[in-house]
Design goal:
Helix content: 40-55%
Pfam family, one: HTH_48
Subcellular location: Nucleus
Strand content: 5-15%
Shape: globular
Order of helices and strands: HHHHHHHEEEHEHHEHHH
GO molecular function: nucleic acid binding
GO cellular component, one term: nucleus
Radius of gyration: 25 Å
Organism: Nephila pilipes (Giant wood spider)
C-alpha cells in the first residue's frame, strides 16, 4: 500500500504520544521508508502542532488565499514567533499566522530587518564560576607542563567516548561539486543518520593511537565497563613496551570517569589524573580533533554492520601520521592559552 501524507502524520502523532523525540521519530521513518519518508522539517512542524494541542491530522480548511496585508499586529506576531523559535521557517510562519510568503518576506526584511545565519556552536552557556574554572585549569596545566614543552607530556594519554553510526550523511560542504554554466544544478536527497549505532572509546597520546574499545552489546558507558574492560585494555597497551611507565590520564567529567569505582581503580594502579574543567569539549583532544576529523572521513559511507563501521573508524585512525598527533597536542596547549586570553570564553 502506498502511504500518503495522512498516513505519515498518523505515525508521527503515534510516535509523539509515545514520547519519542523529533530526531528519533525522523530516524525511524527514514530507516523504514527511506526516500518516501517525510523530511525532518515536516516531522518538526507536526511535533510543534501536537505540542500546541492539535489532535487532527487532516489539512485545515482555508478560505481563499492567505492574507497579504502587512499590519502592525502581523509584524509583532512574526517578531514573537522568531523570539520563541530562532529556527522557525517561512512555512511555519505562514501556517501559524495565515499570511502570504510575500508578506512574510516583507515583514522579515523590511520591517524587522532580520536575516538567517548559521549559528556558531558553543559547548555550553558557561557561568562566571565555570569560566574561572576553565582559566584556572589552563593556567595550572600550562605551568605544570611548561607550555606543553615538558617531557611529561609524553606520558599523557587522553580518551573519550563517541557514537559510530552505520550511516552518517555527508555535510553540505562535502557534497559540493563543480558545474559548468550550461549544466543543471545537481540535487541531493536529504537523508538522516542511521539509528544503528555503536559506542566506542578511543585513547591516544602524543605519539599516536593507543586503543579503541567498542562496547559490546551495551548502549552507554558505565563505571563497571570502564574499569573492567576499557581502562585495563588501554593500560595494557601502554605498558606493553614499558611495564612501569608513568601514565597521566586525561578524560572529561562524565559520571563513569569520576565515579568512586573509577577513582579507586586508578589509585590502585597508580594512574595520575590530569583533570578537566566541566563543559569544555573545546579543551578535549578527542572532541576538537580526533572524532570530527575521522567522522568526516566516514560520512557518506554506508556500512552493512556496525563492526564494519568500527573497523573503518580504526583504520582511519591508524592511518594518521605521527605529525598529526603531535600537532594535536601542540594545539591543545595553544587552546589553553587562548582560553586564558579570552577569560574563559
Amino acid at each position: 500500500m502506498e502511504l500518503n501524507r495522512e498516513h505519515f502524520r498518523a505515525i508521527i502523532f503515534h510516535n509523539f504520544r509515545r514520547g519519542m523525540s523529533r530526531q528519533e521519530c525522523f530516524d525511524e521513518l527514514n530507516s523504514l521508508y527511506s526516500d518516501k519518508a517525510p523530511s525532518y522539517s515536516t516531522v518538526k512542524n507536526w511535533y510543534n502542532e501536537f505540542n500546541r494541542g492539535r489532535c487532527s491530522i487532516q489539512d485545515e480548511s482555508r478560505a481563499g488565499r492567505p492574507k497579504s496585508v502587512v499590519v502592525p499586529e502581523k509584524i509583532n506576531a512574526v517578531r514573537e514567533l522568531i523570539k520563541q523559535d530562532r529556527h522557525v521557517t517561512y512555512r511555519e510562519i505562514e501556517a501559524s499566522l495565515d499570511i502570504s510568503m510575500t508578506s512574510i518576506n516583507k515583514i522579515l526584511h523590511e520591517h524587522l530587518s532580520v536575516k538567517k545565519i548559521c549559528s556558531r556552536w558553543i559547548p555550553h552557556n558557561l557561568t562566571n564560576a565555570q569560566k574561572k574554572a576553565r582559566v584556572d585549569w589552563c593556567k595550572e596545566m600550562l605551568e605544570k607542563y611548561i607550555q606543553g614543552t615538558s617531557k611529561a607530556v609524553y606520558n599523557i594519554y587522553t580518551g573519550d567516548e563517541s557514537w559510530i553510526y552505520a550511516y552518517e550523511p555527508e555535510t553540505k560542504q562535502q557534497s559540493t561539486v563543480w558545474v559548468f554554466q550550461d549544466e543543471a544544478k545537481p540535487t541531493k536527497v536529504v537523508r538522516g543518520r542511521s539509528t544503528s549505532k555503536q559506542m566506542i572509546a578511543c585513547f591516544f597520546g602524543i605519539n599516536g593511537h593507543v586503543a579503541t574499545v567498542a562496547l559490546e552489546q551495551r548502549r552507554t558507558v558505565n563505571s563497571e565497563w570502564y574499569t573492567t574492560i576499557c581502562l585495563p585494555e588501554v593500560i595494557g597497551e601502554i605498558r606493553k613496551k614499558q611495564k612501569n611507565r608513568r601514565i597521566i590520564l586525561h578524560h572529561d567529567n562524565a559520571s563513569s570517569h569520576t565515579s568512586t569505582q573509577t577513582k579507586a581503580f586508578l589509585t590502585e594502579r597508580k594512574i595520575e589524573l590530569m583533570g578537566h574543567p566541566p563543559y569544555c569539549p573545546d579543551l578535549a583532544p578527542n572532541d576538537f580533533f580526533l572524532f570530527p576529523h575521522i567522522k568526516n572521513k566516514l560520512r557518506g559511507q554506508r556500512f552493512s554492520t556496525l563492526e564494519e563501521a568500527v573497523d573503518a573508524f580504526k583504520t582511519h585512525v591508524l592511518e594518521l601520521p605521527q605529525s598529526d598527533w603531535k600537532k594535536c597536542f601542540e594545539n591543545w596547549f595553544k587552546r589553553m592559552q587562548k582560553c586564558i586570553d579570552h577569560h574563559g570564553e
